[in-house]
Amino acid sequence: MNNLKEKIRELAKTSWQEIVDVRRHIHANPELSFEEHNTSAFIAGKLKEFGISFKQGIVKTGIVAEIHGKNPLAKTIALRADMDALPILEENKTDYVSRNKGVMHACGHDVHTASLLGVAKILSQLKNEFEGTVRLIFQPGEEKLPGGASLMIKEGVLENPRPAGIIGQHVFPSMEGGKVGFRKGMYMASTDEIYITVRGKGGHAAMPSTYNNPIYIASQVLLELKKEFMDADTRQVPDVPTVLAFGRFIANGATNVIPDEVKIEGTFRTMNEGWRKEAHKKMKATAQKVASNLGGNCEFAIMDGYPFLINNEAMTEKAIAHAKEYLGETNVEELDLRMTAEDFAFYSQVVPACFYRLGTGNVSKGITSGVHTSTFDIDERALETGMGLMAWLAVCELGGK
């Protein structure tokens, strides 16, 4: 295995510039969730170039490819990359800045896809040196409910045969390039979208006896929800990580016009499925009771999002050891729990999974912007780490090392 490790390192090094070019092409041509038609065609072209068989058109733009080593039926391991972009106007001044105004790879999916294509190139050249099959999943729509992962699973990407496990990686701009981070067990939260409509009675602001202000009612709804779900002293389940937050409050009145209704949008995140379901009921009941007591009414809709993401303990422990072999102990860090969410969680609910973070920052070069910002970028040396480590983890899983 040591000889194979060195071969992977060398191939990652020699493939680096090509994969940088791949990443820059994808970054310059971003496409929104479930609209990744040109990205899909580009990936297909690279896979053909590498001599790798694949299937297109899964969830319209998704692709699944397989690299067969010796004795391909012995074991299958899946690797996943997402490929959609975000509706953000990019403000970077680079040669590869987005050409699609208002759309940007601000979450690093260009990096994930380019890295997986790098893995494909590496492993296709080493297929006579490992046993089993590597399944490559290029997934659309991570950024948009119901999540491309859930739809890919429904279309059978984890079947025929079911892989023994799945590995994914995600950019981490607060970690320096060359480093990676892992966490065993529970790692990321479930996420649900909340849509509330509070109704009262509108009217002229100067005549309070003629209206029942829905802005006041909605404010009381939010205060009570905060008290029951977020305040440390009054939370109903204090030992379960939970976030309830609202980012949109629309009351379309004027200085002297009280509107008839208020619309509110927010998110609910937690790490316990039983509490998640219970909380949904409690939130609705609380909001509707507050509105009713104040003479209004409340429609409370919840769109179920992604489940919590759990990293298989045994698989992740092995991956940490293999990463330390490949990168050195000082370049492998332990991650904290995160209340952010990822649709990779759907895979983790079906097969053993390992989802880790790829350091992409470089403070000395000023590469520090976070994901989902208009100035997000990466230290492109991280691509060498990304493709090399993922290829190494895959062959270690197949070899049972």
Write the layout of secondary structure elements.
Layout: H1 2-28, H2 37-50, E1 53-58, E2 62-68, E3 76-82, H3 109-125, E4 133-139, H4 148-154, E5 165-176, E6 180-182, E7 185-188, E8 190-199, E9 203-204, H5 214-229, E10 242-250, E11 257-258, E12 261-270, H6 273-293, E13 297-303, E14 309-311, H7 313-327, E15 332-334, H8 344-348, E16 353-361, H9 382-399
Parallel strand pairs: 3-4, 3-5, 5-16, 6-15
Antiparallel strand pairs: 1-2, 2-4, 6-16, 7-14, 8-12, 8-13, 9-11, 10-12
Outline of this structure?
With 401 residues, the chain is an alpha/beta fold.
3D structure, described in words:
The chain has helices at 2-28, 37-50, 109-125, 148-154, 214-229, 273-293, 313-327, 344-348, 382-399; strands spanning 53-58, 62-68, 76-82, 133-139, 165-176, 180-182, 185-188, 190-199, 203-204, 242-250, 257-258, 261-270, 297-303, 309-311, 332-334, 353-361. With 401 residues, the protein is an alpha/beta fold. It has two domains: 2-189 and 308-399, 3-Layer(aba) Sandwich (Aminopeptidase); 195-303, 2-Layer Sandwich (Alpha-Beta Plaits), CATH 3.30.70.360. The strands form four sheets. It has an eight-stranded mixed sheet, with helices on both faces. Strands 10-12-8-13 form a four-stranded antiparallel sheet, with helices on one face. Strands 7-14 form a two-stranded antiparallel sheet. Helix 3 links the parallel strand 3 (76-82) and strand 4 (133-139). Helix 1 (2-28) packs antiparallel against helix 3, helix 2 packs parallel to helix 3 and helix 7 crosses helix 9 (382-399).
